[in-house]
What does this fold into?
Amino acid sequence: MPNDAHPSTVGINQQRLFIGSCLALVATSVAFATVGAIMLALKREFVLTNEEVGWIGGAALWGFAITQLIFSPLCDSLGMRLLLRLAFLAHLLGALIMMVSTGFWMLFSGALVIAMGNGLVEAACNPLVAALYPDNKTIKLNQFHVWFPGGIVLGGLAAYGLDAIGITSWQIKLALILIPTTLYGVMLLTQKFPATEGVQSGVSMGEMFKATFTTPLMLLMLLCMAMTASIELGPNRWVPAVLEAGGIAGILVLVWINGLMAAMRYKAGALVHRLSPTGILLASALVSGIGLFWLSYAESGVMAFASATVFALGVCYFWPTMLGFVSERIPKSGALGLGLMGAMGMAVVGLATAPIMGRIADQYVHQQLPEARTVSVFQGVEAMFPAAMAMMPEEQRGDVSKAIEASDAVLQHYTQNQELPPNQTANALRTVIDSGVASEVVGEASSILGPADNYGGRISFRYVVPLSGILVLIFGLLYLNDRRAGGYKVERLGADSSKPAGM
It folds into this structure.
């Protein structure tokens, strides 16, 4: 029996289940990375606003939350293997829907189905890891969650490599999701699984719900999860599109952030023993705020990578340590508690943080558009694009026609109101850029919109920073309370006493 094995795992292929769980998490993170990597392409091809792109990116988050809310309470009764089978089907179906999309609603629906697969993976695998390693939860959950940033690194590098060899199709990049999905299906779907920790300890459904919804500490941690997830996932969702608009290799910055996160999580054991989970959370809140504020000023590649390094060091331990804290300090909350934590984090980011960041970006993008140059672009479209369209094959005229119509609409509004219409102007510039017409007008549109998109996105990062200050206060009080009580203590099901786990 391995050194960290437990009597409850006898007859279970502990290593295969853990590795398979890691591969399932890779599938969720590759989905996160590839959707993030194609957001700029989707915005241009389907002529989407930043807010619409935020809803597509957000669907990949709050869809996760809905699935967690539905299936986490049922994990004890349905079993973890069934949840993973459903996750496998959702990953396959969601990727296919997005790949054949013809507009916003299909993209949104596909992202939502993928997110349901992601939620099912977390609903099954977090309690699975806790059941496999009941004496080492925080450390093993950190090692399991290595593969969320680790998968983003793999997916991001693959997407960048496809670009480098001239394969720019966003559908092919999205198909990368199918590789780890197939692997975890082979590893897990026929294996024998242990019972959840709650089932093993005889915790009833009523006790689990009571511990989750009536414990003040649990309610506080749910509030904190909403903020830690917003700091980590909200900006991460926008990093590639925002930085690429400013001429910086945003996908490589995202890969760098998540590579650091993976490396730090893998070595979490020593830090957990030295600082304790509450100490880690306090330090993370402080460092993440500094890094995100700096990232909001990044106007060069060097500054982007330097600020992203600080940001990564700040956010790397947030998610798994929050889960480990709940599992160790409120163990009766069981699979429901872990699922609700994940659901809270993803729901807030998907339904609020990501769309709000998109709306803020749209507002500042519009403010950055130089009026005279922008009007000149649309006048150039009216003057030159009709003749260019007449010389094109029929199947290539649609994008040019859209650019002409969008430009006309903006010019009419400008003539009547002496101002450029919000959102509509930036979208019209996107249609010009995506028209395929070889013209200086297209280059001018890009030179106007790119810096504006970059500026608006960076400003949206700045609006998230105050959450770090709130978390410093909350985690600081928890840390001081642990110190006064003699150190961080792990609550054990069926145990009469708590075990100190670091100072």
User: Anything to note?
Assistant: The two ends are 31 Å apart (CA to CA). Residues 12-197+205-366+465-500 form a domain with the Growth Hormone; Chain: A; fold (CATH 1.20.1250.20). Residues 151 and 231 are 20 Å apart (CA to CA). The first helix runs from residue 14 to 37.
